[in-house]
Design a protein that fits this description.
Rossmann fold, 2 domains, 6-stranded parallel sheet, 10 helices, 42% helix, binds 5,10-Methenyltetrahydrofolate
Length: 283
């Protein structure tokens, strides 16, 4: 028995179709949802990612604007531009592509975005809202992982979820979302001794570290759900995750591939958040 695949491409297509439907409804009452994307510098990967985000948006009926600035843009000028977008009622979502050039304080930049337009869910107010269970924007990657669990009808109540990684963007918010669904949650990280002792108890494993082959078959309980957030390159330069896919799929009940898993869902949830921002702003 090999694991069933959770197909992020197929599921994201479904999510995008739902978003497109709700956008059409907004437009019918005269609202054009709009996302502003800011890219500073000319990092090649960031150029590709932001282009994808613009295309995804346009395809679902969202208006997306990509603003590009040179790497030597001053932080003060960036903050001024963000404040102008905060004040612009025609803009519902603001995304500043990361990483930013080193001379900028990414925290200060993100905290300048209005929480009502923080569709990345990176603002401290968004993080705080998630922590206490208030409405806000959830970070797109863990939000997409929750959608994947929902899509297979996996009930989290009373299940043991082990999250590997504790970043502010994935690990920590992931753990809070799982907790909100009444899972018992363990967060493992670089200082955890004997990672396998934890993962072998897990009904759900979310690997979000950025290390190839971090999770191997011997670390997985038969039938467990394995969600791979990793984005690494193998020796041949191909995109791969944190999970030894070929090994783990022999043991797991469900598994997400890389590519074609969490990545497309991350992009889809950005559209969901932007739609939500527009709906809330115009309710
Ligand atoms: N403010 C901000 N928000 C972000 O959400 C953000 C960011 N900055 N900086 C960079 C990271 C990275 N990220 C990805 C999302 C989807 C895929 C994705 O769709 N990946 C495809 C493969 C793409 C390929 O083939 O290279 C997949 O996994 O199937 C990748 C990367 C969002 N990020």
């Amino acid at each position: 028995m090999t694991a069933q695949l959770i197909d992020g491409n197929a599921l994201s297509k479904q999510v995008r179709a739902e978003v497109a439907h709700r956008i059409a409804e907004l437009k019918a009452r005269g609202v054009q949802p709009r996302l502003s994307i800011i890219l500073v510098g000319d990092d090649p990967a960031s150029q590709v990612y932001t282009r994808h985000k613009v295309n995804d948006s346009t395809e679902t009926g969202l208006a997306a604007t990509l603003e590009r600035y040179p790497a030597d843009l001053s932080e003060a000028d960036l903050l001024a531009r963000i404040r102008a977008l905060n004040a612009d009622d025609s803009v519902h979502g603001i995304l500043v592509q990361l990483p930013l050039p080193r001379h900028m304080d990414a925290h200060r930049v993100i905290e300048t975005i209005s929480p009502a337009k923080d569709v990345d869910g990176f603002h401290v107010a968004s993080a705080g809202a998630l922590l206490v269970g208030q409405p806000g924007f959830w970070p797109c990657t863990p939000y997409g992982c929750m959608k994947m669990l929902e899509s297979i009808g996996f009930g989290l109540r009373g299940k043991h979820a082990v999250v590997i990684g504790r970043s502010n963007i994935v690990g920590k918010p992931m753990a809070l979302m799982l907790l909100q669904k009444n899972a018992t949650v363990t967060i493992c990280h670089s200082a955890t001794p004997d990672l396998g002792a934890f993962t072998r108890q897990a009904d759900v494993i979310v690997a979000a570290v950025g290390r190839r082959n971090l999770v191997t078959a011997d670390m997985v309980k038969p039938g467990a759900v394995v969600i791979d957030v990793g984005m690494n390159r193998d020796d041949a330069g191909r995109l791969c995750g944190d999970v030894d896919f070929e090994g783990v799929r022999q043991v797991a009940g469900w598994i997400t591939p890389v590519p074609g898993g969490v990545g497309p869902m991350t992009r889809a949830m950005l559209l969901v958040n932007t739609l939500e921002a527009a709906e809330r702003a115009t309710a």
